[in-house]
């Protein structure tokens, strides 16, 4: 095995490990966020939990693609990720609109604030790793999923801000507005994915 092939194989394994770490984090996150969203009636936490489900699907697609890379697999993987974002955007748009129109007031919980803060830090670190490995492998699916992970970090920060503003200042509308931020990024990412495929 040549040095270049050996290095490429190491990078591929690193990409799979980064995806496995993202997958594990989000599996735990989905369970925690479901509990926290139920306890607080938070649109933003619910949306972030759904985004974590998409991240689970996206990580699974990337692991599948990295274990047998081909142009066809890359196109299928990118399209699956794009459609997941479309569904997330539509669902959250409806949820946030209902919350804003009815004056729905979430009850922020410290667990939601703590988990979103930890998630933001973890997702930014994982996104950097995926960008670095994806660029060296010249793998568009890993690079795209790295952007998904970066967006996950941005969304965690947005949700965190909404929860803190609601809790500290009583700005009830900050929670559904944080949900609308997720809608914007999900729609933007879906458009970007479909333009690439």
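Sequence proposed for the structure above (197 residues):
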């Amino acid at each position: 095995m040549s040095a270049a092939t050996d290095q490429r194989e190491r990078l591929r394994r690193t990409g799979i490990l980064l995806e496995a770490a993202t997958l594990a984090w989000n599996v735990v996150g989905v369970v925690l966020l479901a509990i926290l969203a139920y306890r607080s009636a938070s649109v933003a936490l619910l949306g972030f939990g759904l985004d974590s489900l998409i991240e689970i699907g996206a990580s699974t697609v990337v692991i599948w693609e990295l274990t047998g890379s081909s142009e066809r697999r890359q196109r299928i993987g990118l399209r699956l990720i794009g459609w997941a974002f479309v569904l997330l955007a539509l669902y959250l748009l409806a949820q946030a609109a209902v919350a804003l129109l009815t004056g729905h007031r979430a009850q922020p919980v410290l667990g939601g604030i703590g988990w979103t803060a930890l998630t933001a830090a973890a997702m930014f670190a994982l996104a950097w790793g995926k960008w670095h490995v994806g660029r060296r492998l010249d793998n568009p699916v890993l690079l795209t999923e790295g952007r998904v992970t970066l967006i996950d970090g941005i969304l965690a920060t947005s949700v965190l801000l909404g929860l803190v503003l609601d809790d500290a200042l009583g700005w009830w509308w900050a929670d559904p507005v944080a949900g609308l931020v997720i809608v914007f990024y999900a729609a933007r990412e879906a458009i970007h994915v479909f333009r690439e495929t």
